[in-house]
Amino acid sequence: MQSKIKSYIELVRLDKPIGIYLLLWPSLLGLILGSIQSSQISFKNILIVLIGAVLVRSCGCIINDISDHKLDKLVKRTANRPIANGAISLKEAWLFFIFLGLCSLYLLTFTPYLTMKVALAFAVMIMIYPLTKRFFMAPQFILGITFGSGTLISYSLESNIFSPSIFILYMGVISWIISFDTFYALEDFEDDKKIGINSTPILWGKDAVKNAKALHYIFYISLVIIAYINDFSLFFVLIMSILLILNRSQIKLIEEKKYLETFKFNNWIGIVVTSGFAIEVFLI
């Protein structure tokens, strides 16, 4: 029983929570942005975003592993995933996915009607994303659009009027996700090329790192525009300065070709940006 539970934990990557964090920070940014007028967030909405991030990321992991279970066996980094190594059957994985999907739907019953509509519209893309790696040249773009939607969904919990700021944030977050997932894909570049999986590193070739860096800077630019539109204080200059310092550390990892560490390093960027937004909106 303990072995089975461990396999289910590994299936949804609860033992590797970095994916939850990188989904959570954009969602919290959207929630904070939506509360600018009221300068407060209800505890219920924070809880919904936290639980939602875990459920959505878990569902995404399961559907990804179901779709890729044959290919995962051929890649060193993924060969020991529960479905690929036979610890969990496809039937068990589908049942667990359905269970978590129902939990997600139940969670939506505690949200406004607008949030339900936005969330359900993007839910379909969670199912589609794993398949795009086979027929779309840049699946990281689909990932960005899909998981970046957490900004829009969480924003709608606090506001039913979509301001220009939230769309700028959404575009910025999409760029950020494409950027760090490109570095993640660079780790599997040779294996993906061999088995015929598409990715931005394969599409962009030698320009992959340069393009990923540019997309990261677009995310920073979106933050500056949002700060300007919403009259953020000079304190946000400090936040942007910290981000630029962190960016130097990230560039060092890139130069050393530590792409998986580069991917994980974005958690610190998310922490700083979210903290900066929270301080600006609620304390200054």
Please, could you describe this protein's structure?
This protein is an all-alpha fold and 284 residues long. Helix content is 77%, strand content 0%. The protein is globular and about 55 Å long. It starts with a helix and ends with a helix.
Concise summary:
The protein is mainly alpha-helical. The protein has helices at 2-11, 18-34, 43-72, 90-108, 113-135, 139-147, 150-158, 164-186, 189-195, 200-204, 208-229, 235-255, 259-282.
Instruction: Write out the CATH superfamily name.
Output: UbiA prenyltransferase
Helix percent band? over 70%
Q: Supply Rg.
A: 19 Å
Overall average pLDDT: 91
The amount of beta strand, in percent, is under 5%
Please provide the count of β strands: 0
What low-confidence regions span 5 or more consecutive residues with pLDDT below 50?
none
Summary keywords:
single chain, 284 residues, mainly alpha, Tetracycline Repressor, domain 2, 13 helices, 77% helix
Strand-helix topology:
Layout: H1 2-11, H2 18-34, H3 43-72, H4 90-108, H5 113-135, H6 139-147, H7 150-158, H8 164-186, H9 189-195, H10 200-204, H11 208-229, H12 235-255, H13 259-282
